[in-house]
Amino acid sequence: MPQPAKKRKTSSGSSVVDFKETRQKIRSLEASLSDKANLNNVVQLMDLTSSSKTTNAQVIHAAMHALHRVFSRFMTNGDLNPPNDPSSATGKVTLWLTSQFTSYLKRLRQLLSDQEPGLQVPALKILMTLVKTQSEYANKMANDQLQPIVYAMVWNKNLSAPLHKEWIEKYVNAYDDVRYHFYRHAADIMTKTVEKGEKKNEELRRLAQNVFSMVEVIYSMPTEPSELDEFFIELPEIKKAMALKNKNGGGEEEDEDSMLLGDEGLVSEEEEEEDTKEKVSKKKDRKKTPVLQLDHHRRAFQSCWIALLKLPLTEEIYKKTLLILHKRILPHLREPRFLMDFLTDSYNVGGSVSLLALNGLFILITEYNLDYPDFYRKLYTLLDRDVMHVKYRSRFFRLLDVFLSSTLLPANLIAAFIKRLARLSLTAPPAASVIIIPFIYNLLRRHPICMKLIHKNDAVGEAEDPYDFNEQNPYETKALDSSLWELQTLSQHFYANVSTLAKIFSEKFLKPKYNLEDFMDHTYSTFFKTEIERKRKKEPAMAFEKPESCEWTL
Amino acid sequence: MPATKKQQGSGGSALKRLRKSLTAAGVVGQQSKASRSRKDRKRGVPTEVGKNSTADKLSVIRDEFNPFEIKTERTKFDVLNRKVKGTGGKPALNKQIGEENRKKTLLMEMKNKGHVGGIVDKRFGENNPQLTPEERMLERFTKEKQKNAKASMFNLDDDDDEMGLTHYGQSLAEMDDFDDTGLRLSDDEDGPGGQLDRNVVSQMHFGGFEDSKSGENEESDRPKSRAEVMKEIIMKSKLYKQERQAAKEEDETMREDLDEDFKDIQALLNTQSTKRKPLVSQSALFSRTEAEKPEAPNEEEKDEEEKEDEKKTNKYSDYDMLVQELVHDKRAMATDRTKTEEEIALEEKEKLEKAERARKRRMEGLDSESEDEDNKRGRGRKRQRKGANAPQGDDLDDDYLEDLEEEASKLGKGLTLEDIQNGALDEDEEDSEIEDEEGSDEEGSDEEEEDEDFSDLENDEIPEFGEDDDDMNEFGTSGVIKKIAKGKGKQTKGTASGAKREIPYTFECPSTHEEFLEILNGLDVEDVTTVVKRIRVLYHVKLGPENKAKLSTFIGVLVDHIAYVASTTTPLPHKTLESLIAHTFEIAKQLPTVAADVFVTKLKEMHGTMGKKMYQKQGSAFPDVEDITLLRCLGKVFPTSDLTHPVVTPAILYMSQALALCRVQSEIDIGRGLFLCLLFHEYQSFAKRFVPEALNFLQQSLVFLAPNNLFNNQELPGTFPISNNNDVSLHIQDPITEESEEIPSITLEQLGIETVDDDESNLLRLSLLQGVIRLLTRYLQLYASTPALVEVFEPLHNIITHMLTVSWHKDIEEQLNTLQDRLKRQIKFCKDKRTKTPLRMQSHRPIPIAQHLPKFEQGYSYDKHYDPDRERSEYNKIQAQIKKEKKGAMRELRKDNAFMAREKAKERKQKDADYDKYVKGVMTILESDQAEKKRQEREKRR
Lengths: 554, 942
Fold this sequence. Notes:
The structure holds two protein chains of two kinds. By secondary structure, chain A is mainly alpha-helical. Chain A has helices at residues 3-11, 14-32, 41-49, 57-77, 89-112, 117-138, 143-154, 161-172, 176-196, 201-215, 236-261, 269-288, 294-310, 315-329, 340-349, 352-368, 375-382, 393-403, 411-425, 430-446, 485-490, 496-502, 524-533. The two termini of chain A are 63 Å apart. Chain B is mostly helical. In chain B, a hairpin with a 2-residue loop joins strand 3 and strand 4. The longest helix of chain B is centred in the last third of the chain and has 72 residues, at 870-941. In chain B, 27% of the residues are buried. The model of chain B is unreliable at 1-10, 179-193, 208-219, 272-283, 285-302 and 371-500 (pLDDT under 50). The interface between A and B is large, with 69 and 101 residues. Chain B: Involved in nucleolar processing of pre-18S ribosomal RNA. Has a role in the nuclear export of 40S pre-ribosomal subunit to the cytoplasm. Chain B: Keywords: Nucleus, Ribosome biogenesis, rRNA processing.
């Protein structure tokens, strides 16, 4: 029994006695239901589960489980089968029972969005076991059962952490078929709601939030057909397929053995025929059950994500999506080109969203032949005043390094980038400066024409800097005529690592290139940590001037 | 074989080679030992195979030259310098060797297969392949010997009851004349040399056996048994031991005597007080050591007497100190003349210059100690102690004068000696060398305090007058002084108790801040200085070994107290804080490592709390007044100009993180940030390092404080980051504020609170703005020479210009105008400079173009690998080795298999043959039987 329910129980002291009584009552009711004469007691139990009549969570819990036991017994006895003759007395009873069962299921789904997580999780468990029994009974996935569950989950108003965890870890992430159906139903639900356009924006947001919170943590999306091997409901065809798959390795060996034994003559031709038949049927099976096909999985995945992206997303979800897009979404899509518009739009948003979209865009450009006009211009404008101070700095620089790695890029473009980076470094934290410096070094090394930036052979310098910082077009910034005075100032930076690093520009350019990875992912805190934990080899030096009086006012 | 091998290479006709090898083997020609190299002989290399029999030798040589034994393989293409292995060989021989080896090993195993039992060879070294047969035999022999040596009782060979020749029933073996003569000679040499003693004759010569068994001579007669020898040794060692003990005792008594006498001599020793100081003019070297004159604290002496009674418990520390002194004492040196004022000033100057040089080196990130002069703290100080401030010349009393002279030079040349001498006693001069800052502090405090200090000074100072500052010499007259001191101490205690404020004179050294607060209980805030001073005097490092530990904890307490004062006391007692900082500085100087540890832990705490606050996003994450004070203290204690410093660098990083990442939510936050900027300015005042965070913060604050809508984020000049999501608006509502005449400066204690009243906020914002402008002016000054001045300050210029479009309070307006002016001028100046000197960072000689000439190897060999990649070549080598070994192993296995098959076949053949033979035998018998039978039948028939 989960903790919160107990607490609630103790808080209302008088209800303890009540609860014991009711529990007793539930037990007796359950016991009485073994006799078919007392079927009406089901109604009493149903009443106990509805929260409008009982407020005690424990009572609901007990009643819910009691009903589960009762109905599963009915189910195994076949009492819930559609009757041959609906008009007969037994037929009527059966119909009545079925209707009770449906309302029970409905009640359970309501409980999914109950405020008490102690009720949510068992409700989900019961629902899923019922799905399992029903599907196994009907020899096909009980989608008419699963779909409402998914619906209840994604529209859940109180999606508690335990419920979320249970749903994701025990079912969606664990079983390939559950995940597949979840994607399909979720996509279905989302597209339908968008098409209808009835829901309010707020509700849509909740839907998006719920779906995203679930799909965000699904890690089990397979990339190989052979990875489809965990099924919640082991339908016979799946079982067969699995058995075949397992056998596949061993079968050939057996053949070999028989060859060696020289018993060829003993195998009848009929059997051989059967074998081939089986193989053919296996292929057919594959075609039949989408659960076994990776392509279908991908299709479901894709439709779900695209439906999700069509919903109104909050900025947080938007950013998170972009963050995982290139690694966890794009590879599993059937048609990554579908995301082109989404990515280009996000890239045009500007700010950190653009930075994040850059990664996905990169994959599309390199692997899916996306042509992005004025890409470098856009990239240049991304270097704004905030870029050095955001979290995704390193990620951005990794990509920037890739984009600027070509030696065929025009020098004035590179010069513009160098100059802009140098300018930004004047207000950048040390963690960013530490990336910028080797980055500029690498660029200078790749484009020797740009060495002009740090070494001018003109007799007279220019008073006014020809470089135009506010120019948006990198080709027209005239950066190539400018000088990198900023780097000299950086060599006077207060942090020794930055200043020594900045001194490389006044030394001979002997190093072929710096490995940028060494300089990524630093922060103030990491610097602080390394400095403060650095082992002291000798006594720390002390000031030799006596402290003078200090200033206490400004 | 080694001989012949050599010749194979050298070539020559077959006949010649044969001849050579024959001579080498010694079969033909002259035989001489010289033909073998000396080295070989030394090493014991056996001459040749079969060196004894000529026939053997000949057979070896014959095999060697048998052309049918040698198999050569012709290579298709001869490559120069290429060694191909396996072109020549003796397959038959090799095969035979292999076969034989297999017979020894594999065959034996095969035969023994399936057999159980047998004899385990446990002979020593039988299974150890490392031993040569000779060694093995030797080992066995020694083992056997040892075994035999144990059981000796019935051994006839044993020495004890040896049977031998006798004379008159006496064993002749016992009478070894050499032994005896030896004994004689060694025992009494006084006897007349040359001739044999009568005694000897009587004892030793035949017939004189009567005495031989009597008394002491008995031993000398026969060789001693082992037991006896051992006994003797034990005896002797015991004797020596006794002697040693006696000697030791003697020493002990002597030393005790000396100790007693020493007190008398001591006085004499000290009055001579004998350190010689060479004249500055005489040698540069000495002047240098002189320059290292410590600012070593020396107040210990004056308190030594006072402490004497406390320290009676550990009297040995006294003694230790004395010994130390004596060790460091230079004896019997002529005294120096007193140094002139200029000389002392010069020394002072040199000292400061040296410290400055060291600092500069550290600033460039070089090791300050790599410089020639040794200013390493630990050793340096010792040296300083040795050399510095020693009494000079005819100094009986003018130490005092000297100290003052020191003081003078330290204070600068503005003051003359007389000035100080006159004014000396007004100040609190007790820590004459290092504590002058305290003096000035004390001046600031009230009069009463001064009186007390005066009495304090009298007590403490007097003994010092006669003393040497640094050498801790105990004076001969110290006894007297001690008494005075004690007396005085009592007196002052009395007076102190009578005084209005009771500041005790002795304390336990507080080990926690609570203890310290207890001491301070009931005292004014300013009195802390006095208390700290007294504690420092009482527990000076040099006064006892345990004081170091005490002070180490005390420095932590002191730092805690600074934080405590800063956070609890309002208004902020600036003087007290400053003097506390000064005290921290002084103690830290003595215990640099401890101080560093204390500050590092403080920094860690501060960083941790800041991180937490930032994460929780509630309250101000900025360092508060306490933290700022601590940072300030840190900046005073440690050199902030160093390139890297174990304490300062983290501190700076912490500050910059605070400035860059803490969210500005109120005026207080801006104020705290401003003080951090001020601290940064203080830190960088010498090194002038570039701090983007400070400038960013100042410009950000300008934007925050500017009147509403003055700045739109889109057009904001500069590249400093600006966060839009500010919940609080800090814009100045009323930039003119006519009602206030003057805009007050912002003070640190104003920032101790968390929230600001709304009605005060406008004025506060104005003073913040004023602070920002002032700081910006300072930073402009600080970075006046930075190369990218234009890039750094041009946006600021734009901002200021933009701000001037609004009308301001006259103070602010004026300041803004001056700042703008300065900015304009500086920028223009920088641009001018750029026209004259364009950026030339690569003005060294051009890098030579890489030449890709083929690398020519002298004496290239095909078999060598010239892979420049070491790892790869090593990998290849190992790979080749693996391949080779594998092939070898496979070959061997194959041969083994073939051998085994052969052996099996042989066995089977043998078996078959045996069977055949058996069958044949049986058949013959049967045949003969049959024949017999037939014959008989035939006979019967007949």
